[in-house]
Design goal:
single chain, about 110 residues, mainly alpha, about 35% helix, globular
Length: about 110
């Protein structure tokens, strides 16, 4: 029953007028690919942060991500912090941030 309620809530958000406000966010991109909310939010819709293990289950290892972004300068997945939680930069329901810009000023586009 709980899973059905979560799926229904996600569907309502996707269909509501506020869905236009989140267009382009990672959650919206996942929804367009028919990825269900519960795929990332294993603990339920009230789970504030999706942990790296959930992201890597679909997107591959952190090293594989570094390989996919090797032409980005600087490579955000090959950095002096090592394997960070994806949510450090990538936000599901709000604009993503370049956490490196807390100290540096890079011109990186963050999905």
């Amino acid at each position: 029953m709980y899973k059905i309620l979560i799926a229904l809530a996600c569907a309502l958000v996707a269909l509501s007028s506020s869905a236009a406000e989140i267009a382009g966010f990672i959650a919206d991109r996942h929804a367009k690919l028919n990825v269900q909310c519960i795929s990332c939010h294993k603990q339920g819709a009230d789970q504030a942060t999706v942990r790296k293990e959930q992201c890597l289950a679909c997107h591959g290892s952190y090293m594989a991500l570094a390989k996919r972004t090797e032409k980005v300068n600087p490579n955000p997945h090959y950095n002096h912090f090592g394997d960070r939680d994806c949510s450090t930069c990538h936000q599901g329901h709000s604009p993503s941030v370049t956490s490196c810009d807390q100290c540096h000023k890079f011109d990186l586009r963050m999905p």
